[in-house]
User: Which sequence fits this backbone?
């Protein structure tokens, strides 16, 4: 046997990984043996593969999913470093959100306050009946920002072919959207020309799960929030403030909660008002 090859036991000891882990890496395409004996099935590795095995182990210590490790391992040095940087940016963003949520929950559980608990001004507005084009999707909380931007962009482009947008776009949550629950959520854009909207939906809307409906007149209880407050979990405090206001005044929810986006998102800064958190009430 070529002296450059090591048995799986020897290789595992030098790479500081178990033989079981190496077999798993092989199945997932993360670290393929240099040679597999066709008769016995024994795996053999080259000395040069030790560094790759250690890299996989180090990436696992960052809790990197195996699929993303496969991308890093397959990439060249500069691209691999970029993939690692992108993954770690995702981790830090998730940790920042979890840190904010933990602070909020501490205040809530202790009966005190937290950074997320602040005074929200709740108002009501009467909305007329409107024709809307909508796109509905089952989506988890971490997928929501990208989907909202893409879906409202598609619907606003379609609205320009249907007499133009006739009001601010909004998203309706027909069921809970969280890391465990996927809604569904419904992106909506009011349009001026119902006949044109129905013709457009019939011709092109099916691929987007799009439909046209008439939303009845309703009274909305809402609070206005800044761009920095739109992210989950900060937005939870705004929803809870409106719900509390509704209860205190003896009103009842009359439909699904929603977020109304009235400002230019890209042009807005963190402190600029961009969104109304609202509930239909009666």
Assistant:
């Amino acid at each position: 046997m070529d002296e450059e090859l090591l048995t799986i036991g020897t290789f595992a000891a030098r790479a500081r990984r178990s033989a079981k882990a190496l077999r798993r890496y092989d199945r997932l395409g993360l670290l393929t043996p240099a040679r597999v004996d066709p008769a016995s099935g024994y795996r053999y590795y080259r000395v040069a593969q030790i560094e790759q095995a250690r890299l996989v182990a180090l990436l696992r210590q960052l809790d990197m999913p195996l699929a993303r490790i496969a991308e890093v391992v397959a990439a060249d040095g500069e691209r691999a470093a970029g993939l690692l940087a992108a993954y770690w940016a995702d981790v830090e963003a998730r940790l920042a959100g979890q840190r904010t949520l933990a602070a909020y929950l501490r205040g809530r559980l202790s009966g005190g306050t937290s950074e997320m608990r602040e005074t929200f001004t709740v108002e009501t507005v009467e909305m007329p009946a409107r024709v809307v084009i909508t796109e509905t999707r089952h989506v988890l909380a971490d997928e929501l920002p990208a989907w909202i931007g893409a879906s409202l962009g598609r619907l606003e482009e379609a609205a320009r072919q249907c007499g133009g947008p006739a009001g601010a776009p909004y998203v309706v949550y027909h069921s809970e959207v969280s890391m465990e629950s996927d809604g569904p959520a419904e992106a909506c854009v009011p349009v001026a020309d119902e006949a044109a909207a129905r013709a457009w939906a019939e011709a092109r809307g099916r691929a987007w799960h799009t439909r046209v409906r008439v939303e009845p007149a309703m009274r909305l209880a809402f609070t206005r929030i800044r761009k920095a407050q739109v992210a989950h979990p900060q937005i939870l405090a705004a929803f809870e403030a409106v719900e509390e206001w509704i209860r205190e005044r003896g009103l009842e929810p009359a439909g699904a909660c929603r977020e109304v986006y009235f400002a230019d998102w890209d042009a807005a800064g963190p402190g600029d008002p961009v969104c109304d958190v609202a509930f239909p009430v009666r």
Observations:
- The helical segments are 8-15, 19-28, 50-61, 66-74, 77-110, 144-159, 194-204, 234-248.
